[in-house]
């Protein structure tokens, strides 16, 4: 049976990818953020997951305002990264896990979710940047990927509870998968930030730290704010916390925080990284 060994939660700011390309990881502006990945690198070397199930939001590469699915799940054998306008290039291709993808799709549909199924899909910085952060200096990604896209762009957005329940449905699907894969779930994006309008540059440290405090022990506490509350608290792009909630929902076992890092700002964004361990899963 498959196991979800843990979860990695991180910002996916395009500027991070540019900093990597320029070798700026040790620059004073970037170092506090990149230093937060040292414990993640050690953990990944020890646990050696086979598959990453990534909850993220597409930035117009696959879906635009005229066609925006609430949830979409990739079921391709391979995926390519393409730059959606930030000047990011050179990311390695991704290998899919189509059998596991189809099992997840079929299982969540049985649980009354209705994802769009994507048998071809491009992956943008929301997946590529976290992969580069987690597995730097590799010739090929050491994990296969199942990408799950949530709409955090075009209203109406899914509610925080719906995002958490989607993650729980995905977690049940992974637990019922008969393959031997060790799975790490990833939630990417955020934390608080707004890129446009009168509140451009908005960061809410108190709300961010509230999320970081509750992510492992009590994700239900984060449901006290509805989607519009989160927009007000965290900024219009701060709703990417929905990706974190979905990934946290997939971790249905005994969850323990192993590492956490918070740094303000990176490209007008409150950047954060969290590593959670998942054990003693309930298979039901």
Low-confidence runs of at least 5 consecutive residues: none
- Report the portion of residues in β strands: 15-25%
Rg from alpha-carbon coordinates: 17 Å
> What class do helices, strands and sheet pairing give?
alpha/beta
Main β sheet profile: 8 strands, mixed
The quaternary organization reads as: single chain
Q: Which range best describes the helical content: under 10%, 10-25%, 25-40%, 40-55%, 55-70% or over 70%?
A: 25-40%
Characterization of this structure:
- By secondary structure, this protein is α/β, with parallel strands linked by helices.
- It has helices at residues 14-21, 31-34, 38-47, 98-110, 125-134, 160-175, 205-214, 227-234, 241-250, and strands at residues 3-10, 51-56, 71-74, 78-81, 94-95, 116-118, 122-123, 144-150, 182-188, 254-266, 269-279.
- It has a single domain (3-279), classed as 3-Layer(aba) Sandwich (Protocatechuate 4,5-dioxygenase, Chain B).
- Strands 6-3-8-2-9-1-11-10 form an 8-stranded mixed β-sheet, with helices on both faces. Strands 5-4-7 form a 3-stranded mixed β-sheet.
- Strand 10 and strand 11 (269-279) form a beta hairpin.
- Helix 4 crosses helix 6 and helix 6 runs parallel beside helix 9 (241-250).
- The chain is globular and about 45 Å long.
- The model has no long low-confidence stretch (mean pLDDT 92).
